[in-house]
Design goal:
- It contains 24 helices and 3 strands.
- It has 570 residues and is mainly α.
- Among the domains are: 86 residues, no CATH class; 215 residues, no CATH class.
- It has a 3-stranded mixed sheet, with no helix packed on it.
- Helix 12 runs parallel beside helix 21.
- The termini are far apart.
């Protein structure tokens, strides 16, 4: 990690070439009709410029984060005020608050205590810790958004790395071992995003658009039974990859005996440690439980219970909570923030959000969607591969939410006539939404990557190994959906039962029905087409998961009565 201010006078021909290549990539994009309309070319050009500077580390990361503003000042591809507003996002308050709370951990020794306990119980083996952090964050991301997961665990990982001797962002950047730990946190925070509807922005967008397309709500269990197995397979595959990532040390410094002695020196938790920990746990707990209490706290009077607000309120309270150990000092102070708050994070994460918005608002995202069109309809297998590969490619350079906003509507419009309206776009919505979750390579892809970049994660390593991890994840995705959609030897039909379809407001229930498929030896296979079960007339269990007409589990002959969801009418 370099600092342009510290060695501006030492730039040689190679460094200047790297620096000038950034704006050169913008000019190349502007001159290439391949990138679409003129404004869309700005979106692609700014993306290429920033990615190059990030992975080459030729200038300070914070300076790279300001590239969109600089370009808007030279040429207004977007109104300057819109570019500036893109750097302001409500989740920035969440990140600031979480980081401020963990700064208090460092000040009063809880971060050290936490790191020692982790090293004691897990191991100081670098490869094992890397895979362990990834799995831990991956499982948590099933029900928590990637930004929140990274805000929870990145400071803890940094605390353990600081204790191991990596006290600065530059030291963590230059160490493969330390950087891999931070990368594991970022990747884990994103990898479980589609396991449940609560996993992040891409799952929320996919869930909402799929509900709209079907005309009824999808059950939480219905979603989870389809997507959780895929998420677990990807977590296992990438965890193995991370275990074998290149490292510059096999073990972090210290031993279990040493860690134990250091813990004994710390003694019992102090009052200040307990308060700093309690504030963090309270904020995280309310964030996790929000789906349970949100329906009862509607209205402006209850907005303070939202996670973003709580992560602002609690640190502010700690600024006025006096310490018992040090007279005249509070639990959190401006001096503590100056010493322990990573300033880079205030640049990196807003820049990643801004870049995703620029790609969307300049039309670059739409152009990317057009590139996929020639690969559709040739064959079902190629379509699965196309939706997986292109969806993942888009998610590597823009936010998962923005990628879902582009790819899922495109899937609905492009594939609504799949198999002559028999089955529609639903399977392809699953494919697109899933592939978007495996975004590892570029720091702008998710808030989680932006956070760990602010703590010193090596962006060059993230890019190179992120591409490898993406290939592994996409390959697993293609195989999973190829079997699940096109070749299900056995399946579980998950469908919504509706009384007298189209006649009145439907009553819904989730039923599990074993289909009499050709090879019942694999009962775990899931059908990826949501069904409706009509009790009027003959009452047929309409299946669209096989790709071969009506389900073998029908109860009679004929067709279901009543209107089909929008886009699936005969």
């Amino acid at each position: 990690m370099t600092d342009s201010s510290s060695h501006a006078a030492t730039y040689g021909p190679k460094e200047w070439l790297y620096i000038l290549l950034g704006p050169g990539l913008l000019l190349m994009a502007l001159a290439a009709p391949f990138f679409g309309p003129f404004n869309a070319r700005f979106g692609f050009g700014i993306l290429l410029w920033m990615v190059w500077w990030w992975i080459s580390a030729v200038v300070d990361i914070k300076l790279t984060c300001l590239v969109p503003i600089f370009v808007a000042c030279v040429y207004q591809y977007m109104p300057l005020e819109k570019v500036l507003s893109a750097y302001v996002h409500k989740e920035a308050a969440l990140i600031f608050g979480a980081t401020a709370l963990t700064a208090a951990w460092v000040r009063w020794g809880f971060a050290r205590r936490l790191a020692l306990n982790f090293l004691m119980r897990f191991s100081n083996n670098v490869r094992a810790q890397t895979a362990g952090w990834f799995v831990l964050c991956g499982v948590t991301s099933f029900v928590v958004g990637n930004t929140t997961v990274a805000a929870m665990f990145a400071p803890v990982a940094v605390a353990s790395l600081m204790y191991a001797g990596f006290t600065s962002n530059e030291e963590r950047w230059n160490s493969k071992a330390a950087s891999n730990i931070l990368i594991a946190v970022a990747w884990g925070a994103s990898v479980g995003g589609m396991a449940t509807p609560l996993g992040g922005g891409q799952s929320v967008v996919t869930y909402g658009l799929l509900n709209k397309y079907l005309g009824h709500d999808i059950f939480f269990l219905d979603w989870t039974l389809r997507m959780l197995p895929l998420s677990l397979c990807v977590i296992a595959g990438v965890a193995v990859l991370m275990y074998f990532m290149k490292t510059d040390m096999q073990h972090f410094s210290g031993s279990r005996e040493f860690y134990q002695k250091e813990l004994e020196k710390l003694g019992p938790m102090t009052f200040e440690e307990k308060i700093a920990l309690a504030g963090f746990v309270l904020a995280i707990g309310l964030a996790l439980l929000q789906p349970l209490y949100a329906p009862y706290t509607k209205g402006p009077a209850w907005t303070w219970l939202r996670p973003t607000q709580m992560f602002c309120i609690i640190p502010l309270l700690l600024f006025f909570w006096p310490s018992r150990a040090v007279k005249g000092e509070n639990i959190l102070s401006a001096d503590t923030l100056r010493k322990y708050f990573p300033v880079t994070i205030l640049f990196m994460w807003p820049a990643s959000v801004a870049l995703s918005r620029i790609i969307s608002q300049t039309g670059a995202g739409k152009v990317f969607g057009q590139w996929i069109s020639p690969f559709l309809g040739v064959s079902d297998t190629l379509s699965i591969a196309a939706w997986s590969v292109f969806g993942n490619m888009l998610s590597q350079v823009t936010s998962d939410t923005a990628a879902a906003g582009v790819m899922v509507p495109l899937a609905i419009e492009s594939m609504r006539n799949w198999h002559g309206l028999e089955f529609g776009a639903v399977p392809w919505v699953w494919v697109s939404g899933a592939a978007i979750s495996w975004s590892y390579a570029v720091a702008s892809a998710t808030g989680a990557q932006g956070i760990v970049a602010g703590y010193g994660a090596n962006l060059r390593t993230m890019f190179v190994w992120g591409l490898v991890a993406a290939v592994v994840s996409v390959a697993i995705t293609i195989l999973y959906f190829w079997y699940g959609i096109l070749h299900p030897p056995a399946c579980i039909n998950l469908h919504t039962a509706r009384g007298h379809c189209g006649r009145q407001a439907p009553r819904r229930r989730l039923t599990l029905e074993s289909a009499h498929c050709p090879s019942p030896s694999l009962p775990f296979r899931l059908c990826f087409q949501l069904q409706r079960h009509c009790h009027g007339g003959a009452g047929i269990c309409r299946n669209a998961g096989h790709g071969h007409g009506d389900s073998p589990c029908h109860h009679g002959k004929g067709r279901p009565r009543g209107p089909l969801p929008a886009g699936r009418r005969h």
